[in-house]
Amino acid sequence: MAVPVRVADPAELESWDARVVEVPGGNVYQSRAWAAHRARLGWTPHFLVLDDGFPVLALTRPWRGLAGSSAYVSRGPIPAADARTTADRLVAVTAWLGDRGCDVVAADPEVPADSGFPELLRGAGFHQIEEIQPTRHRLDLAVPPSGDEGTVFGAFSSTTRNLIRQAERQGLTVRRVEGGVGDPTEREACEVLYGFLREVSTRRGFWLASRSTFMSWMTAALAAHLAFLLVVEDGDGQPVAAASFHRHGERLTYALAGERTEARRSHPGANRLLVWRAIQVAMAEGRTVMDLSGVDVRGARRRPRPGEPEQGMLQFKESFGARWVEMSGAHERVLRPGRYLAGRVIDRLTRGLGGSHP
After folding, report:
1. What pLDDT digit, counting tens, does each position of 230-287 carry?
2. Which of 295, 289, 296, 287 is nearest to 321 (CA)?
3. Which pTM does this prediction carry?
4. Fewer CB near the terminus (10 Å): N or C of the chain?
5. Closest listed residue to residue 285, CA positions, set 253, 316, 243
6. Domain of 75: which CATH number?
């Protein structure tokens, strides 16, 4: 029986982002900008359309020195109202990719864990894997349709409200940067954020993509109006903190953030002011959810407990009134175990010898 999946035609590509990013539950990692960014890093994008007209972006890359490939359906398929439809769509896309030589397919659509989605995937031959994106779970803040800033601000913890007011009294201001392909101000803001991220990665010991990879994605996302940056500056115009945010569907997502190390003591409210300004942007744009991203414990992938390093970030995000949302997480289906294992081994060896997988 023919797989009910085909390659998108030019008209469908033209309206792609409207159907996978701007819809409820949409995600920038299903966008054309993300596909172009990954293509620059050696992946091949496949813009697919199912028999019901539903669009799905899949990314593939070949094994080094071996036939076959791996595939990643990045944050897709975009979740449907019911988990079974999403699972059926992923199964169809997996079959299409398998018919074209893929040995393993990974996917991590943002589907709540209590939807039954993980059980449906297990029944279809998938198994849970470690996350591809930074976190499995989310912290969501409901944004009232009225856009009543006073009500939203009043729901923050007293500590957060006081620190935001202190930051304003200190003369901190927040500059918004977006759009403008090639704009030197935009590039400067991206460089500032990357510098802060490098400081944070050194302090906390986490992996950070190269500057060129970071700039590639930020340039693509800003040009497509999928993202913007906020930079907190002191009275002398010196950057104190910065963060990037993604626009998709009903959500505004807190993506990457960093701050100047020495400013953590002199300006303790800088990051809270930054998040508050982002929430105001979400209200102004008519978003209904401020997604503050997750802080789950790596390896365990659960809510942090008192005394664990992630507990402080959890408290920071919950101080805005955000609630913890358990997500289904990443899963993969191995279609050709032998070639998949060989591809993984070769990939690890080439990386260990200084090579890099496409």
Report:
1. 999 999 999 999 999 999 999 999 999 999 988 889 999 999 999 999 999 999 999 9
2. 289
3. 0.94
4. N
5. 253
6. 3.40.630.30
